[in-house]
Amino acid sequence: MTSPQNDPAPQPPQGHPHAHTHSHGPAAPVSRHLRKVIAAVLIPFATAVVVGLIAFWPGGVPDHERTGVGFDRQTQDGKVVQVVKVDCADVNAAQVPPTGDTSTPSGREAVNEQEGECAKATIEVTSGDDKGRRFVEVVQPDAPRQLKEGQGVVVAYAPDAPRDLQYSVIDVNRKVPMALLAGIFALAVVLVGRMRGVMALVALAVSFAVLTLFILPAILQGSNPLVVAVIGASAIMLAALYMCHGVTARTSVAVIGTLVSLLLIGLLGSLFIGWAGLSGNTDDNTGLIKGLYPEIDMSGLLLAGIIIGSLGVLDDVTVTQTSAVWELHQADPEMGWKGLYRAGIRIGRDHIASVVNTLVLAYAGAALPLLLLFSIAQSSVGTVANSELVAEEIVRTLVGSIGLVASVPVTTVLAALVVSADRTGPGGAQAATAAPARTGRGRRRKKG
Fold it and tell me: How far apart are CA 133 and CA 137, in angstroms?
């Protein structure tokens, strides 16, 4: 096969216009006029996002007096230095006397407290002002978390308690395995994605920074959660898409499609959260937040979570659809916008089915313990769906799914209109799409 550089007389293909459709390199350039049109839409939007970030930027997380409840406790690192097996009766004054009836959970627990073998663990505080201080923790035989020597733990500090009771173990220290897992993830992304993978990790870091430095502190300071979520999600969207996919017209169309879908999700979410009477205050954690910061609009916080949670999947859908339309146009530059739309939407239908199923299963998996409790209680489907805990997840799932489904036709039609309206000259997109036809494989197709 002759290389393209040595072909003395390259001829354009005379046969099927789809001869070379699978170019996955950079998108073909678009005309200057089209770039100006896209810029006229996105520059004001990006400017508004920057202005919103400046206007709502918090000065940090507001201080509050710690309650010592749940996550609002002072914590330090600790280490188990010794574990001794002892008779439970010697170290545990059972709060509930044995009932003799081991058929009930309380009866079995009381008997174990009196007759079982407990663990007497000595814990050393390894961080903070009390570094080196030791205390004793008694672990019941049926406790879900057992301690062993050398294990890292997280300890809670209660300054108002008696000295012997100020520290207690609340969790194990998982920093090392979590850090190792994060390192394996980053390595896999870079090895497979190469430079795209590196930029994806940078975009992930930017997203995390916007979430922790802007969205969360701004909500805690009393800003409207919906406004903060829209500004923060828009900033994440702009940074992630342009970092990962380049500053191109193709990426810009994906940005616009994502923005339209996010607006739809925001409108639907606001409507149905209010209509269904969802308060957003359904468990101990949200109750603690409301107690510490009563000015926070919890239903607005729920809506903000729906918007941010939908953003990641939306990016995937809009970029895929835009890329598909661009590739179809490069394969057949003569195809009009209607043909591009019909071909692109056929690809999108497969994407819709898989993405919606993924989203529903993700939410179902997160709520699996709750659903299991309802199953144990033998509640009817209507009763389960009507409870606020489950209703929140249903609204979250369905609103997000509607936005995802809508993003496919919206992004596809935008991409089809933009790419078919492009009228570049000999050095532009159409010339770029004709270039691959000079290969030897093209000549073989012509002969066939």
Answer: 13
